[in-house]
């Protein structure tokens, strides 16, 4: 029988809607249409809501609405994780990525808020993971404001560390205090340590307290230096070198400083 006249076996009906769903999700998560951009903005809002819930947890945990809010966010996060896996071309490979594993652990802390309360502060790492995936910087890139991305990343790294350290210090040293007061003391101590102000009115007791203070000061100073460099160092433009791929160059660069290849960087006058 000729090849053209052989009967073709259509895909099972149950696979067609599933494939269509995956295509639609892939477009929503990775497309650039108006609908996709709105959907991505909504997904980013969910991510920020999870982080906001962590920040507000010391205040909310003793209220009647805490579990309702916590489980609602957990349900939305579950839908988001499953949808992203379906939108991926290699779901099993994506499931092994550190960012996804972190999301699964965050989901676990949301499902068991009292059992895993000691690890709830790790939710703030989701802010750092958002930075790494690039979702936070897409609006800047679409508007041609890529020169602001480096300072914004430095600010985000510092904010992430501040709240991560605050959460750890609150969970380890101040959890016995009343919710908001204890968290505020932890935040105050973290900022005082990072800025090396050292008022001394709040200190962490014992050897572990001293070691925690040392780590917070060392990492905090490093992040402050990174932020200062990002703000005050000469502005560079985003122009990939066609030969070596170096992304950032001086605005008036004629040759790539990495490989020496000739550049043609457009400016306002050209």
Structure description:
It is found in: Membrane. By secondary structure, this protein is mainly α. The protein folds into three domains: about 10-140; about 145-235, Helix Hairpins; about 235-270. About 60% of the residues lie in helices and about 0% in strands. It has helices spanning about 15-30, 35-60, 65-85, 90-95, 100-110, 125-135, 140, 150-175, 180-195, 205-230; strands at about 235-240, 250. Strands 1-2 form a two-stranded antiparallel ribbon. The model is unreliable at about 1-10 (pLDDT under 50).
Provide the fold topology.
Layout (H helix, E strand, L loop, with lengths): L14 H16 L3 H27 L5 H22 L3 H5 L2 H14 L13 H9 L4 H5 L6 H26 L4 H16 L11 H27 L4 E2 L9 E2 L21
Antiparallel strand pairs: 1-2
Helix pairs in contact: 1-2, 1-3, 2-3, 2-9, 3-5, 6-8, 8-9, 8-10
Membrane topology: Multi-pass membrane protein
Main location: membrane
Protein name: Ion channel
Could you give a quick summary of the protein structure above?
The chain has 270 residues and is mainly α. Helices cover 62% and strands 1% of the residues.
């Amino acid at each position: 029988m000729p090849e053209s006249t052989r009967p073709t076996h259509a895909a099972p009906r149950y696979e067609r809607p599933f494939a269509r769903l995956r295509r639609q999700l892939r477009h929503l998560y990775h497309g650039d249409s108006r609908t996709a951009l709105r959907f991505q903005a909504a997904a980013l809002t969910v991510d920020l809501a999870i982080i906001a819930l962590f920040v507000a947890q010391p205040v909310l945990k003793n209220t009647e609405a805490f579990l309702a809010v916590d489980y609602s966010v957990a349900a939305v996060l579950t839908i988001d994780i499953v949808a992203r896996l379906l939108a991926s071309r290699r779901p099993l490979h994506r499931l092994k990525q550190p960012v996804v594993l972190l999301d699964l652990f965050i989901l676990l802390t949301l499902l068991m808020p009292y059992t895993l309360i000691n690890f709830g502060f790790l939710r703030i790492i989701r802010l750092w993971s958002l930075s790494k995936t690039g979702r936070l910087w897409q609006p800047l890139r679409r508007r041609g404001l890529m020169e602001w991305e480096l300072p914004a990343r430095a600010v985000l790294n510092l904010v992430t560390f501040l709240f991560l350290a605050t959460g750890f210090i609150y969970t380890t040293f101040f959890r016995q205090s009343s919710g908001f007061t204890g968290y505020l003391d932890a935040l105050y101590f973290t900022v005082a340590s990072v800025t090396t102000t050292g008022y001394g009115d709040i200190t962490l007791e014992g050897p572990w307290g001293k070691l925690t203070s040392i780590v917070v000061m060392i990492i905090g100073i490093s992040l402050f230096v990174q932020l200062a460099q990002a703000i005050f160092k000469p502005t560079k433009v985003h122009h990939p070198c066609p030969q070596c791929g170096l992304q950032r160059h001086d605005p008036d660069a004629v040759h790539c400083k990495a490989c020496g290849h000739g550049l043609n960087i457009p400016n306002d006058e050209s």
